[in-house]
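The freezer alarm interrupted the setup, so I double-checked each line after restarting. Inputs confirmed:
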Amino acid sequence: MNGLLFLIPVALGLGLLGLIGFFWALRHGQFDDPDGAASRILLDDDDEEGEGRN
Amino acid sequence: MNALAEITAQDQVHTVLSVPGMHCASCMGKVERGLAALPGVARARVNLSARTVSVAHSPGLDTPDLVAALSGIGFKAQPRRDELAPRYAAVRPLLAPLAVAFFAAMNVMTLSVSVWAGADGATRSLFHWLSALIGVPAIAYAGQPFFRSAWSALSKGRTNMDVPISIGVVIATCLSLYETASGGRDAWFDGALMLLTFLLAGRVLDAMMRDRARTGVDALLRQAATGALVVGDDGTPRWHKTQDLAPAMLMRVAAGERLAADGEIVAGASRFDQALLTGEAAPVVRRTGDTVLAGTLNLDSPVDVRVSQVGRDTTLAEIARLMEAAGQGRSRYVRLADRASRLYAPAVHTLAALATLGWLVAGAGLYQALVVGVTVLIITCPCALGLAVPVAQVVVSGALMRAGIMVKDGSALERLARVDRALLDKTGTLTLGRPLPDPAALAALTAEEAAVCLALASHSGHPLSRALADALAAAGHRAAPLVDVAEVPGTGVFARWNEDSVALRRPQVAGGMASALAIGSRPDRLIAYADRLRPDTAEALARLDRLGIESSILSGDNHAAVAEAARQTGLTAQWGATPAAKQDAIVRLQAAGHKVLMVGDGLNDGPALAAADASIAPGSASDVGLQAADVVFVSDSLLALPRAVAASRATMRVVRQNFALAIGYNILAVPLAIAGLLTPLIAAAAMSASSLIVVANSLRLARAVR
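Predicted 3D structure, all chains:
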């Protein structure tokens, strides 16, 4: 019983963390361009230092 | 870097360009780097899903400059109209409810499993309270799309699929709360949440399909002539956007440009392609004093046009109004899922009420009778039914999309499956709608001549030169090195090649569409152009015939041109049809009990596309055609027509199987529920199993497009 009192909040907390993470992603435009994000990782222009990452 | 630093954030202008040709990482890199290299551009960011690039740049840079820069690196781009820029996504408002429902369903399920495993006493009570704590807010939030739709249907005195869903979910939640408070044995939070998760997944799939097609079509919308070069009083030309044009302005329209407004030619003469407005394939000559219409394409030489009408007053807008009126018939179509629920919802509610009454009559207590009634409601909640239609449609639309056919929404597939009569426009639909050089004339050129011809043609933006350059490049020719290249508008391109002067120009003797290739003292080569039937037309029409669909031509072009097309295809034809006449022809067929498919591209087809039971447009269609059509195909081949119809029929077959599966599951589970033998465990397992079977059956459609 004591184990449960400890484990249930942990389980719920972890799930909630995932949910909050998803909402954060939704709010910050992570789902605006799924195709682009998939392809952007293949670009290798390392020459522009620090800019172009917007 | 210095140039960039000078552009402060305040005076930056944002422009969104549509670049339909981007499809991979390297395209994306090329576009972004190419634009960033322009002086005055601060930032360029591609959105590959929407096929757009948004550019932050200094005000000194005009949209045409950006378009020119992109065409320099090999991408065709068009400015997007401002009102289209914020992309509406149907899937976005559904993602958050789905996430919440999924999270809550998983957690409540974990707790329920321990209850099923035999948790008892205080533990069970604690678990039920925890489930209620998670479940009630989650159901209140995630159920909103269903509650709202059900309420709007009920308040209009109608019913739809969302009504039984909402009633089931709400009653299950209330009863579970009562059970929890009274320390009862079973709670249904897990069932209600799982139901919402499955149903929201179905809705998300449906919305994803619509978004994907809409983005594809948006990228195709040419947004042509979103502006014009206006010559000011002091003689300096300035670029004006369409909405800034006013009557009495003087537009300078270059060859190869579309007119942004109706007007009268005050200087120059040229030929105009009116195919999108009237369906006429042959260009018409317009001279000083003649009226020219917005949306037509200037073919030959630059003209100055005094604007007479803009925006809502143009002929183009007139057709748009005709179309709005025509689209009403289609909105009366009731989707299959809603038709099914008209029968299903009353049956289910009657059954639940009868079960409750039956137990009461048999002497059970009120509480026990109510539990049985609710169990029946939950078990018959159309979970698999809610997935039956969207999953099948999303799978087939994905398969069609890979074949270059974009379906705008699910109801389009349902309507397309029922057609038994097809009307095809000629110009731009049966034919490619653009002049192509005569293959025999090209084959007659020597390799040397072809190389010179390609080099000359590639120096001109004229539509005929473009077609010629494309055809020669496709045939594997390479451009010869030229010097002193000069294009004389309305006459041709002139240059020097080795020691000879060479030219690609209008032929001396006018007659039809042709251009003449002159190399030194050699005799001129005449290359004729004509609009040709699409590839695979015969095969496509034969397949339509095998599907039981009778086709005929409905064209606005003149008798001779339509008769020629009718002879080549073996179809019956109606010629010289105005937009209103096309619409009438469809209404007549519908009155005779036919389900009509309209295939067309032009503005003049707009009302007909909107009036028909289902409509298809090629990707080269006018903006109006693209927006009015249910289905858009981007390939040149006409085989897209039978493919789309066959796939839509296969979809309806699978949807009917899905319905049978879902209802079969109900027939098995409902007697158990009525007998009071159904535990939440069995209900949860049965619900998941039937949903999975429906999804698996729908996935077979991935190979349905041939």
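Quick read of the result. Residues 1-87 of chain B form a domain with the Alpha-Beta Plaits fold (CATH 3.30.70.100).
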